[in-house]
Write a structure and sequence with these properties.
The chain is an alpha+beta fold. It has 1 helix and 4 strands; from the N terminus they run αββββ. Strand 3 and strand 4 form a beta hairpin.
Length: about 90
């Protein structure tokens, strides 16, 4: 929703993508400080405006897993070659 925390997810994804060395192709910081990330680690998104994008440079799909414990958000980028089929 508008102003409803989507930017916390995109900021968490930005940190995960950057740490995993995926090329970030679009990222914008908020115009004001946010409580969950400093300006070097936030990634604002706005419908019809700002977006956050990164590129999968691997030769396999990547699973994006987002989780929360109700207070914090975590993101994982998982290479599919590490997934065992049932």
């Amino acid at each position: 929703t508008v102003g409803g925390g989507v930017c916390q997810i995109s900021s968490t994804m930005y940190i995960a993508a950057r740490d995993a060395e995926f090329p970030v192709t679009e990222r914008h910081s908020h115009s004001h400080e946010v409580p969950y990330a400093d300006s070097q680690h936030d990634a604002t998104v706005s419908y019809g405006g700002y977006d956050f994008k990164f590129q999968n440079h691997l030769d396999m799909p990547v699973i994006i897993r987002i989780s929360t414990d109700g207070e914090t958000v975590a993101a994982e980028l998982i290479q599919t070659n590490n997934i065992k089929s049932p």
